[in-house]
Amino acid sequence: MRKLNPSFFPYRIDASKNMFPVVPLSLEFGAKKKEFFALVDSGATVSIFRSEVAESLGINIEKGKEIYLGGVGGRIRGYLHRLKIEVAGKRFICPIVFSRDYLVSFNLLGRQGFFKRFRITFEEKKNYLKLE
Predict the structure, then answer these.
(1) Which residues neighbour 59 within 8 Å (Cβ) at sequence distance 6 or greater?
(2) I need a surface site. Which of 15, 18, 37, 121 has the fewest CB within 10 A?
(3) Tell me: the pLDDT tens digits for 90-121?
(4) Does 37 have pLDDT greater than 80?
(5) Which DSSP state fits 62?
(6) How far apart are CA 74 and CA 60, in angstroms?
(7) What pTM, to 2 d.p., does this model score?
(8) Rounded to 5 degrees, what are φ and ψ at 123?
(9) What is the DSSP letter of 63?
């Protein structure tokens, strides 16, 4: 059996002193590769990033597949793209929705295309996330 090499990420604190499981990652589009942070969200089906992320990579978000996402905050329009992503030493293609309507401070890593790549442990008591 292959031994898993875990990566530990301490939760990050927001301005209100709340703790969140946020991880660093890189996204690639063409020749551009940039570093970002995203909240690992088991309640999100897809990953969703703010439009500024797409713009910084030179992505015209409207060239993606238009989709509508619904949740607690209502319904927003986004555009689905497939990008190279690197998280915890693993590189893979991940579906990411970019939206001008998404105004939350955290980008989100949702289940689709991300969760099956890792064994994910949320250690709420110790305020860290483990990806294996």
Answers:
(1) 29, 81, 98
(2) 15
(3) 999 999 999 999 988 899 999 999 999 999 99
(4) yes
(5) G
(6) 24
(7) 0.90
(8) -105, 80
(9) G
